[in-house]
Specification:
Elements: E1 9-15, E2 35-36, E3 40-41, H1 43-52, E4 57-62, H2 67-76, E5 87-91, H3 105-111, H4 113-118, E6 123-128, E7 131-133, H5 137-147, E8 151-157, E9 169-173, E10 176-181, E11 192-201, H6 202-212, H7 222-229, E12 236-240, E13 254-256, H8 260-269, E14 297-299, E15 308-310, E16 313-314, E17 319-321, E18 324-326, E19 329-330, E20 335-336, E21 341-347, E22 352-353, E23 358-364, E24 369-370, E25 375-376, H9 380-386, E26 388-389, E27 395-397
Parallel strand pairs: 1-4, 1-6, 4-5, 8-12, 14-17, 15-18, 16-19, 17-20, 18-21, 19-21, 20-22, 21-23, 22-24, 23-25, 23-27
Antiparallel strand pairs: 2-3, 6-11, 7-13, 8-11, 9-10, 26-27
Helix pairs in contact: 6-7
Length: 404
């Protein structure tokens, strides 16, 4: 990274989405706070990227159902030294004449322009805290400085989008963005789109936000404001995600969580023989808040049947007591009772699966107690009468589910 002082960079992590597409998992939490891979939260990926990239001044913009997110940041990310000007700081919407909410990522930046302006830094990197990927932000910062541009846009190849609908399509000539058009993935791929990673010179960003402060800003993406104000006038560069630069191993994995099916598939990706997302790189660990729990274990149940665990991720404090778990992601303190079978499922922290119960292709939110001999994911008609069922047939059991 070609910076003499890494504290001259401010990072803004955007966790402002309303989460409606992931209901009921976002009924009481924002997307960035959803559990992932058994022991993490979604925002841990963006914050871990900051940590390993040497970025120590981080603001997290939040708004909807943010308590769980703020608690997680407090418990898991209070590791920087305030005496050195380092921090991870949640930022809620400013209070003006009326209640303020953000209509999109661009609006969040515009409404916090005063805060960005008064923060001492030379460059600002803006990233989404609602996506799953690993990236060395130091590499894109170095690229930005080398190319002396107004903004550098993290560019994602269509082959890496996992079916996501991005905010725009980018036409590139070398490393320069020459056109920004409505998103069109195209049948043959080969195009690029913005992955919601932007590097700005601070003075240029403040000019952009001032220019973008006009009627009609509601709902606009950051790339829309860049197109309107800078395309053809300022130098807009593209940094291709997944290249050889940087210290992170290049798994090239990126996932937008635009639906519960996306969330389910992203977790199931970790169980593949060769997982496309490398969370095991020794010098790029994903940091999170880990409560003190005893090791997970399997043990015989009341029937003396041994607990069985096959190709699954299981967090601390979980016990499989005579049940069977296959191809699942289990959070901490999950208990699977005698004779219960759990297949192709995501089970959140504190869930208890009763004796003889059968679960298939489901997401169970935290602290749910599923009674004995339940069947979920077996009969689609019955499931649809009781729970939310996604277009791909995944059954979602919310944290306030009651069984009679």
């Amino acid at each position: 990274m070609l910076l003499s002082n890494q504290n001259s960079v401010l990072t803004v992590v955007l966790a402002t989405g309303d989460g409606k597409a992931l209901m009921p998992l976002t009924q009481r939490r924002t997307v960035a706070a959803i559990p992932f891979a058994g022991g993490y939260r979604v925002i841990d990926f963006a914050l871990s990227n900051c940590l390993h990239s040497g970025l120590r001044r981080v603001m997290v913009f939040s708004q909807f159902n943010a308590l769980s997110l703020h608690n997680h940041i407090r418990d898991g990310w209070s590791l920087f030294n305030a005496d050195l000007g380092e921090y991870v700081m949640p930022v809620t919407p400013p209070i003006e004449d009326e209640l303020t909410t953000y209509s999109g990522y661009a609006d969040a930046l515009i409404k916090n322009a005063y805060l960005l302006d008064r923060t001492p830094c030379d460059h600002v990197i803006v990233v989404s805290g609602e996506q799953i990927y690993r990236m060395d932000y130091g590499a894109i910062l170095a690229f930005h400085l080398k190319n002396a541009c107004a903004v550098t846009v993290g560019a994602l190849d269509t082959a890496r989008m996992n079916g996501a609908q991005l905010s725009a399509s980018l036409k590139l000539r070398g490393n320069q963005v020459v056109d920004i058009a409505p998103f069109n993935k195209g049948k043959d791929g080969g195009g690029y789109g913005p992955m919601e990673v932007f590097v700005f010179k601070k003075s240029a960003l403040m000019d952009l936000l001032e220019q973008g402060r006009r009627p009609g800003v509601n709902g606009r993406a950051i790339i829309d404001v860049i197109k309107e104000q800078w395309l053809g006038k300022e130098k807009v560069s593209a940094y291709r995600f997944g290249g050889a630069d940087g210290r992170v191993s290049q798994d090239k994995y990126w996932r937008m969580l635009a639906s519960v099916d996306d969330y389910f598939d992203a977790n199931m990706d970790l169980l593949k023989f060769e997982p496309p997302l490398d969370i095991y790189q020794p010098d790029w660990p994903i940091r999170t808040h880990q409560t003190q729990r005893p090791p997970a274990r399997t043990v015989a149940g009341r029937s003396c049947t041994e607990g069985i665990l096959l190709n699954s991720i299981i967090a601390g404090g979980s016990v499989i007591a005579g049940g069977g778990v296959s191809h699942c992601v289990l959070g901490n303190r999950v208990y699977v009772d005698d004779g219960a079978t759990v297949e192709d499922a995501i089970i959140s922290a504190g869930v208890r699966v009763g004796e003889g119960t059968q679960l298939r292709r489901c997401v169970v939110d935290r602290n749910v107690e599923i009674p004995a001999n339940e069947q979920i994911g077996i009969d689609p008609k019955t499931d649809a009468e009781r729970f939310t069922v996604t277009p791909n047939g995944v059954v979602v059991i919310p944290s306030d589910a009651e069984f009679t």
